[in-house]
Amino acid sequence: MVTKGVTPPMTTNDTEIRFIPNREVRTIPRGWQHPKTASGRYQPLLPADYVFDDSERSPVMPDASGLPAHDTEIAAYESVSEGTPISPAFPNTPEGRRDLVRYCAEHGTAFGNERAGAEAWAAILFGDATIGSDGTVRA
């Protein structure tokens, strides 16, 4: 029974958990270096294909979409902010993708301080996986 003006207590069935993708692969021109601020930290940059509202402006990454694969590299980025690299760049090849996954599994965190194995990183970066706030990878 619900009384007008009184919100019934929440039950466990009412809980909604959302997963937010917070790591992604970005394609960059070969040799491009992500800019740093005066303090030496990476400058957050939105993806090159980010669509702005009319009044919105922010720095974006260079557009590598028209370049052939051999003129591009890939890197893992955190996407909680506009985006900063969490890996070095790797060749945009199947071997480079494997090396990127391996690097992230050895050196990266999937969310906060939570680590993930290579299979989870492959799903995060190249599949449809997302990461929960508890670090659980969901494919």
What labels describe this entry?
four-stranded antiparallel β-sheet; two-stranded antiparallel ribbon; 139 residues
Structure description:
This protein is an alpha+beta fold and 139 residues long. It has one domain. Helix content is 17%, strand content 16%. The chain is built from 2 helices and 6 strands; from the N terminus they run E-E-E-E-H-H-E-E. The strands form 2 sheets. Strands 1, 2, 3 and 4 form a 4-stranded antiparallel beta sheet that branches. The protein has a two-stranded antiparallel ribbon with strand order 5-6. A hairpin with a 5-residue loop joins strand 2 and strand 3. The chain is globular, with a radius of gyration of 19 Å. The chain starts with 22 loop residues before the first strand and ends with a strand.
Concise description?
By secondary structure, the protein is α+β, with helices and mostly antiparallel strands.
What is the number of helical segments per DSSP (H or I, 4+ residues)? 2
Low-confidence stretches: 14-19
Query: What order do the SSEs take from the amino end to the carboxyl end, as H and E?
Result: EEEEHHEE
- Derived from helix and strand composition plus strand pairing, the structural class reads alpha+beta
Determine the strand fraction and express it as a percent band: 15-25%
Number of separate structural domains: 1
* Count of beta strands: 6
Q: Portion of residues in helices?
A: 10-25%
Large-scale geometry? globular
Kindly report the average pLDDT value.
Answer: 82
The radius of gyration computed from the alpha-carbon positions, rounded to a whole number of angstroms, is 19 Å
Taking the sheet with the most strands, its summary is: 4 strands, antiparallel
Task: Compute the separation of the termini in Å.
Answer: 38 Å
